[in-house]
Amino acid sequence: MGCGNKPISFEFSIGVHGNQIDGKSNRSSKPQNDDSSDEDDDDETQLLQQAARMAEEKAGVSTTLPIKPETKDKNYYHIPYEERKPVVFLRFPKEDHRRRFYNMNILSKIADKFESGLGEANDRIVRDRPRPDRPFKRTMLEFAEGLMNYSKLTKGTGGGSAAGKTKLDKERNKMLIREVDHLRKKVGKMRLDKFRKPTVMEMREKMKLAKSLLQRIKHLAAEPQHCLPDLFVWMLCGGKRTAYCRIPSRKLIFSIVGEEKGEMCGKINTIFLRLPGKKASGPEGWAVQAKLDVYLWLGLNKHRRDVMKGLPTGFEQTKDVKAIMKPSGIPPMLITYKVQRTFQLRCHMYQARSIIGSDDSGLSDPFARVIFGDQVRESQVIEETLSPTWDELLLFEQVTIYGNKKDLKEDPPTIAVEVFDHDLGGGTEFIGRALVKPVIKLPDDVYCKPRFPPMLAWYNIYRGQTPAGEILCALEMIEVG
Q1: Cα angle at 397 between 391 and 399, to 5 degrees?
Q2: What is the pLDDT of residues 315-324, one digit of tens each?
Q3: Which residues contact 415 (CB under 8 A, 6 or more apart)?
Q4: Which residue has the higher pLDDT, 27 or 143?
Q5: Element (H, E) at 79
Q6: In angstroms, rounded to a whole number, what is the distance separating the alpha carbons of residues 98 and 300?
Q7: Which residues, 6 or more positions from 204, have their beta carbon under 8 angstroms from its beta carbon?
Q8: 235 Cβ partners below 8 Å, 6+ apart?
Q9: C-alpha angle 62/67/72, rounded to 5°?
């Protein structure tokens, strides 16, 4: 990162809203040769500055307070937010074109579910496993139901308050309903015979047709008119932007209808910041500059009563916190959690396969590294292989998590598992990273099968956007106090 132990803050901006660095000018500065100023001018200037500060406060606080990161090994730095979680917010006027985002979200969720089901069926065909027609039939049925649900949700919204008022909005709404109905009819013609097992050739033909439908639904989900800029999360160090993450606004938009709601709205999300510009495409950009767990929500001011419904409970219900849900209220700078839990984290690292070769021989000397908060554990180094077998337990004796047990069980924290090549000189070269969700055991749970001990599972390793192999592991968090 190049920040070391310098104070770090994070800026959240949508377009010009929340941008604290770019395009700023000092309007309060006076010309050097202006001798005509008097006390009235000074009073007027102070009033204008006070009004500007009040307007900025109402518009939002987009940047967290600078905090010095802490480290135990000088490789990984941790910002000690602990139980005091910073709050940032933006408030700005915008035309109401939510219908565009809602349509995108409904169609994108249909496409994602359809693609996942086709992947399962295709995997059975490729691996020559029995009855690939069963997941295929189920997927096609769910796809048809999703298309029918889209028609129900969007019919009659062409002139609604959230539909947009442009002619293109209205015509596109009609076109989408027409195209979705057409796709549903195509799906009806593709249904397989219930009483006959299809041949491999028939299944391949059906898969080919289904993939063309997938491409069509993805094309329909693309919105030609974007109504809001994307959210940018910047890491600031020494007044400079050092790393960022860009999140499409449609993924954050709120709706009381689950299908219309963005997949990142009203929940804890793990995001990764990358280097800006050309640096991100080279070896320097392979490593993640920062990992953040953030709660995000984007919606109308009148819906603020729903802002905190997905936030993990256990925080102090102060007067300032309750103001978040009021239309005219200003959120506090911090939310303090009083409920914390202590866990033991067990990382069962078994093996990896098909990892990237980093040495001149085409092989690597790989080892795994698990990062959680301010703690790091490493496996042994296995020399000259692309398929290392560690068969090792990495143990974190005590890790602290904030929130209640229901939230932890439903949405465990995301843990980064990184794989490196060990060089003879003692240096390391980054191979890739996998993201793993641990299995949570609370005091009321019995440690027995089928949940415990957790089954080993394969996780994809990525170096940037490039696949870099797979790792076989299992992680479990056991509450100890």
Answers
A1: 115
A2: 998 988 988 8
A3: 345, 347, 370, 371, 372, 435, 436, 437, 438, 475
A4: 143
A5: none
A6: 10
A7: 125
A8: 1, 8, 9, 10, 241, 242, 243, 244, 273, 289, 290
A9: 140
**Is the preceding omega at residue 93 within 30 degrees of 0, hence cis?**
no
Is the separation of the CB atoms in 248 and 230 below 8 Å? yes
Measured in whole angstroms, the distance separating CA 107 from the mean position of its chain's CA atoms is 19
- Rounded CA separation 401/240 (Å): 31
Give the model's pLDDT for residue 76: 86
Does pLDDT of 63 surpass 90?
yes
d(CA 191, CA 103): 27
Instruction: Determine the pLDDT at residue 147.
Output: 95
Q: Which three-class secondary structure string do you get for 174-204?
A: HHHHHHHHHHHHHHHHCCCCCCCCCCHHHHH
Q: How far apart (Å, rounded) are the C-alpha atoms in residues 325 and 303?
A: 8
Q: How confident is the model at residue 197 (pLDDT cuts 50, 70, 90)?
A: confident
- SS3 of 470, please? strand
The confidence score (pLDDT) of residue 278 equals: 78
pLDDT at 58: 61
Residue 481, exposed/middle/buried by CB under 10 A (0-12, 13-18, 19+)? exposed
- Taking a C-beta distance cutoff of 8 angstroms, is the pair 254, 262 a contact? yes
Instruction: Please work out, in degrees rounded to the nearest 5, the angle formed at the alpha carbon of residue 273 by the alpha carbons of 269 and 274.
Output: 150
Q: What is the pTM of this model?
A: 0.84
Interatomic CA distance for residues 478 and 481, integer angstroms: 9
pLDDT confidence of residue 396: 96
For 347-373, b where at least 16 C-beta lie within 10 A, e where not — what string? Answer: bbbbbbeebbebeeeeebbbbbbbbbb
Greatest mean pLDDT among 64-73, 92-101, 120-129, 258-267: 258-267
Task: Answer for the pair 390, 382: CB distance below 8 angstroms, yes or no.
Answer: yes
pLDDT at 35 over 70: no
The yes-or-no verdict on residue 423 having pLDDT over 60 is: yes
In this prediction, residue 29 carries a pLDDT of 39
Which amino acid is present at 473?
C
